Amino acid sequence: MQNTKLLLTSLTFAGLVALAGCSFPGVYKVDIQQGNVVTQDMIDQLRPGMTRRQVRFIMGSPLITDTFHANRWDYVYSIQPGGSRRQQERMSLIFSDNDQLIGLSGDFVPGVSRDEAILGTDGSAAPATQAPSQAEPAPAPGSLEEQIQREVDEAEAVPVPSPEPLDTNPQ
């Protein structure tokens, strides 16, 4: 009787520990991704008048092609990182009857791409140059930095040989 009670208590305790391990903090949970990954850089490459083939090259195959709306492609992407809230992004592309891109709608809009925003260029103007007042101070004479700078300044450009064109008219 005593052994049965001890065995039952042990099994109950082991079961509770196993159940607690399912939601124990620090346990790795897998990121769940579904759909097409769509980035701002992909949207920035789209131009009105592009064919379906060109759009498919940039964006990939659409997740949804509706038979009732043959001129519309839908891209949906959702991710649920490690058990947290699910995030979802949508993008719809509209084509004309002659298979040319005429519009888009969704969570992304054409504009400055993330790379251009980081580099500080928007494609229409040259990047801002550093003002002379903010120039770096000259390296100390005799220092390693000064020696490297001198070697860089004295380096000469070497022309790169270009290959001869292939003969397109063999005799």
Question: Would you give an account of this structure?
Answer:
By secondary structure, the protein is α+β, with helices and mostly antiparallel strands. The chain has a domain at 29-118: Beta-lactamase Inhibitory Protein, Chain:B, domain 1. The protein is 30% helix and 18% strand. The chain contains 5 helices and 5 strands. It has helices spanning 2-22, 40-45, 52-59, 114-119, 144-154; strands at 32-35, 64-65, 72-80, 87-95, 101-106. Strands 1, 2, 3, 4 and 5 form a 5-stranded antiparallel beta sheet that branches. Strand 2 and strand 3 form a beta hairpin. Residues 125-132 have low confidence and may be disordered.
Q: What is the element layout, followed by pairings?
A:
Layout: H1 2-22, E1 32-35, H2 40-45, H3 52-59, E2 64-65, E3 72-80, E4 87-95, E5 101-106, H4 114-119, H5 144-154
Antiparallel strand pairs: 1-3, 2-3, 3-4, 4-5
Share in helix? 25-40%
Number of helices: 5
- Helix-and-strand structural type: alpha+beta
* Oligomeric grouping of the chains: single chain
CATH architecture of the domain at 29-118: 2-Layer Sandwich
Compute the separation of the termini in Å: 104 Å
Beta-strand content estimate: 15-25%
**If you consult CATH, what is the topology of the domain at 29-118?**
Beta-lactamase Inhibitory Protein, Chain:B, domain 1
How does the overall form come out from the CA principal axes? flat
CATH class of the domain at 29-118: Alpha Beta
Protein name: Outer membrane protein assembly factor BamE
Function: Part of the outer membrane protein assembly complex, which is involved in assembly and insertion of beta-barrel proteins into the outer membrane.
Keywords: Cell outer membrane, Lipoprotein, Membrane, Palmitate, Signal
Subunit structure: Part of the Bam complex.
